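#random but structural
TW: two for the price of one
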Amino acid sequence: MALGDPFDLTGRRAVVTGASKGIGLGIATGLLNAGASVIGLQRSPLPASLLRLAEERGSEARHVPVDLASEDAIADAVAHALSLGDVDILVNNAGTQIRHDAVEFPLKDFDTVLNVNLRAVFQLCQAFAPAMLSRGWGRIVNISSLLSFQGGYRVPAYAASKGAVGQLTKALSNEWAARGVNVNAVAPGYIDTEMNEALVADPDRNAQISVRIPAGRWGTGADLAGAVVFLASDAAAYVHGVVLPVDGGWLAR
């Protein structure tokens, strides 16, 4: 780690769920640029662009396959990741979204969203934290949502899961802050990713959303990288239990 640079992550190893595209790819790119090595936990392989960046930076980018809906698969992926060396940073980015009117929302779909967006996040925190706690240094960054603060529309399971991620972040920070492990969350605003394709493609809904964003545009995965690098670094040593909006000013409107 460079002397005097609190944002430098050289020598740190980060696990990022869903690092192959969208927000996760932006975050993984930011962590590599800050000097960290990255292990991507998701079904799909890491893109060639991320592997090239890791090589250029003299770092590493590896893929550990996992089905985040499966408790056993997560346990196996954690064991694999830990076998590669100490994990200093955990970014719980991956999530899923299913839209239905609330009166028609199948309980199976509700459970699917909660399992991936909440239970998997807790399982990963629970699995990676002990080694961080024993070393007295660790960073956990959970990716929450504007729907930690708002209710959304036709997304009751997603809103419930992301609200819970915010509260889980605070609960874990209360237990682990004094032991050197910082637990925080980033709440993205409207980001132009595959999850939001339906909204982006709907001219009326897109216009309704865009007009409320003071920054004047939807966000990109790269817009989340700086906030995550900050929370993963020594610069955030005294930051605990925060849910940080990165939303182009949406909540301030």
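TW: number two ↓
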Amino acid sequence: MTRRIKIDFVSDVSCPWCAIGLKSLDTALSRLGDDIQADFHFQPFELNPQMGSEGEDIGEHIARKYGSSPEDVARSQKMIRERGAALGFVFDMDKRGRIYNTFDAHRLLHWAEALGKQKELKEALFVAYFTEGLNPSDHQVLENVAASVGLDRDRARQILNSDEYASEVRAREQLYQNAGIHAVPAVILNDKYLIEGGQPVEAFERALRQVAQG
């Protein structure tokens, strides 16, 4: 018997561990086959809500925010690259030199949810930023990514050139912050069970089986 599990995936498109977490979760679901039907909902979280449109150098940003040395950054990037490669995801650190504001990307993701394209858009945004090194705050980039997954380019442009869905995104961000989510990825199963961080495939598989079994 197939069990339907609601998955709220709280994340940011500029969070490498969120990309890893989603790939791990997808791999776990593939291992479970027809036993589980996943109902994905991607919820907004901004790692740097005050970031300007020009962005900031990643090394400088991490040093300022976390006190990390260049050696710390290099070790972390190596780990991220290796984890991604093991899951079939490419992190091209040479192309990704800056970190950007992601609020407009979250507005498009909110729009895509009702159209059944949210997961495709989320995955395409991860590739655009982490693999291709594109700026996820640039409206032309966002229009191109939206169109690449079958969303209407003109409608995407209309949203981006307005404040549409801004209040809805901020309300959802506040909802999860009030619920105690202060780091991502945060994966919530059936509105009850929380899995934090970019966990290994086995951890997601174990949690999904436990939830499916009640």
